[in-house]
Amino acid sequence: MKFTDDQIADIGEEIISVLKTVYDPEIPVDIYELGLVYDVQISDDADVKIIMTLTTPNCPVAETLPQEVKDKVAEVENVKSVDLELTFEPSWNKDMMSEEAKFELGML
Predict the structure, then answer these.
(1) Which residue has the higher pLDDT, 64 or 24?
(2) Alpha-carbon gap, residue 99 to 108, rounded angstroms
(3) Percentage of the chain with pLDDT > 70?
(4) Domain boundaries, the chain
(5) How big is the chain by its Cα radius of gyration, in Å?
């Protein structure tokens, strides 16, 4: 089944809402506001590809965090499949955080 652009946009908004419920355990800010999600691609068939990073390659949740993201996004209505790619290029830095995240962490 092919989805319309509006439906894809709605699915995208749902995915972002879900991403905002996933937290880096060391920082009290969600992974979306932290800038750890580099890209969310959604095909016409609602196959989702997420490209994300971690704050450090040795992050204590390197095993569990990507799986949590994958599981939560897979539960979004109409999402057919989720492919998650973990990348460290470019490496994450605090400039990638949203204003909201910087404010939360007292950096503004």
Answers:
(1) 64
(2) 8
(3) 100
(4) 3-88
(5) 14
Q: Which two tokens stand for residue 107?
A: 């950096």
- Residue 70 and residue 81 in contact, taking contact as beta carbons nearer than 8 Å: no
Q: Which amino acid is at 11?
A: I
> Which CATH code of 3.30.300.130, 3.40.50.300, 3.60.15.10, 3.30.420.40 fits the domain covering 3-88?
3.30.300.130
Please list, in sequence order, all residues whose beta carbon lies within 8 angstroms of the beta carbon of residue 75, skipping any fewer than 6 positions away: 18
**pLDDT band at residue 57 using 50, 70 and 90 as cut-offs:** confident
Q: Using pLDDT thresholds of 50, 70 and 90, give the confidence band for residue 67.
A: very high
What the block records as the tokens of 17 is 């809402």
Q: How many CB atoms lie within 10 A of CB 32?
A: 21
Q: 37 pLDDT band (50/70/90 cuts)? A: very high
Measured CA to CA in angstroms, residue 73 lies from 17, 21, 23, 67, 95 at distances of 10, 11, 14, 10, 26
